[in-house]
Write a structure and sequence with these properties.
The chain is of the alpha+beta class. It has 3 domains: 87 residues, Immunoglobulins (Immunoglobulin-like, Sandwich), CATH 2.60.40.10; 80 residues, Immunoglobulin-like; 109 residues, OmpA-like domain (60s Ribosomal Protein L30, Chain: A, 2-Layer Sandwich), CATH 3.30.1330. The protein has 5 helices and 18 strands. The strands form 5 sheets. A 4-stranded antiparallel sheet has the order 3-2-5-6, with no helix packed on it. Strands 10-9-12-13 form a 4-stranded antiparallel sheet, with no helix packed on it. The protein starts with a helix and ends with a strand.
Length: 347
């Protein structure tokens, strides 16, 4: 009997003996329970703190306001959007109640403010500034949501239809209701303009005016299909081929003239029925005969450059004028450079 009871007790002791792995698991579970208890305690403490702060705000008459920003096109929140908020009755030079960006987590700013009437504006790079929102703040946790719309930035050039060179022109862009959204002057050097468009507007019109050119007007629709402003000159019979360079005293065309030659080729390629006469001019340095030969040779070089690009030779005539037709007196290096030119006469 005694032996039987001993064996039973030994079995119970063996049943309660834990392996090392079980001991580690038990210790880990105990630590986890402590962490959860500490977390719940911290949450209760935080909730109590927020509740106390809420009671204090109500007591002080400063209910909490949350301002959120989001993309009107996609509905996504927009962090780092600058919010400016002010009392509608504040003086213009008074510091705003809020002037800071929304946070990166919830795309919001928050502040305890006295009850009253306020205005708010949201601004972010790459987006149109929001309309001014006027609202009355009176609840303990008011929420204000401000939507802003992404910009569509359009860049374009203003060029001459014959030479493809930049044109100085007055540019006006209007919306579908005829209201002016941009007015500027194009640059004769870089000639790149930029305008912000709102693709919620059904269409815009672009108007351009320039001296010696016909007025221009076109419509911009979405998706953007605008290729730029091309101005047509009035009664053009000839133009100077700028940026064409030759070796000193020779007919050889320098590599730096490629862009000018390409402009002339594109002009002829886009107008298959256009015939031209290439007229060469020189300054008065050297004899009349040498200048005549030089001007004729240079014209021939330009013609050969066009033929090499695929323009039919019968569309091009050449004429060397030597020093006979100066446009300014040959009394300075600058004036002599102006007289050394290649002119394209339309036929």
């Amino acid at each position: 009997m005694f032996l039987l009871i001993s064996l039973l007790l030994l079995g119970d002791v063996c049943a309660y003996a834990l392996t090392p792995a079980e001991k580690r698991a038990k210790a880990k579970a105990k630590i986890e329970r402590k962490r959860e208890a500490a977390k719940r305690k911290a949450e209760r403490k935080k909730a109590a703190k927020l509740k106390a702060a809420k009671r204090q705000r109500i007591k002080d008459g400063k209910p909490l306001l949350y301002v959120y920003t989001y993309n009107l096109q996609t509905g996504e929140p927009l962090p780092a959007t600058h919010i400016t908020l002010q009392d509608v009755n504040a003086r213009p030079n008074k510091k705003p109640k809020i002037s800071k960006p929304t946070d990166t987590k919830r795309a919001r700013v928050s502040k305890g403010l006295p009850e009253g009437k306020y205005w708010a504006v949201a601004a972010k790079t790459g987006y149109f500034t929001s309309d001014t929102v006027i609202f009355r703040h009176k609840e303990d946790e008011d929420t204000l949501k401000i939507a802003i719309y992404p910009e569509t930035r359009l860049t374009f050039t203003v060029t001459d239809s014959l030479t493809s060179r930049p044109v100085v022109a007055n540019i006006v862009v209007r919306n579908h209701q005829g209201a002016r959204v941009m007015q500027t002057t194009s640059d004769s050097m870089h000639n790149v303009l930029a305008v912000l468009l709102d693709d919620r507007i059904p269409f815009y019109t672009v108007e351009a005016t320039a001296v010696h050119y016909f007025p221009y007007r076109d419509t911009i629709s979405f998706p953007l299909d605008f290729q730029g402003v091309v101005m047509s000159p009035r009664e053009v019979k000839s133009f100077v081929l700028h940026n064409i360079y030759f070796a000193t005293g020779k007919t050889h065309i320098l590599p730096s003239s490629e862009s000018a030659l390409n402009e002339l080729y594109l002009f002829l390629h886009s107008r298959p029925n256009q015939h031209i006469r290439i007229v060469g001019h020189t300054d008065n340095i050297g004899s009349d005969r040498s200048n005549q030969i030089l001007s004729e040779g240079r014209c021939q070089e330009v013609k050969q450059a066009m033929i090499a690009r695929g323009i039919a030779s019968e569309r091009i005539e050449v004429e060397g004028r030597g020093e006979r037709d100066p446009i300014v007196p040959n009394d300075s290096d600058e004036h002599r450079q102006m007289n050394r030119r290649v002119e394209i006469v339309l036929q």
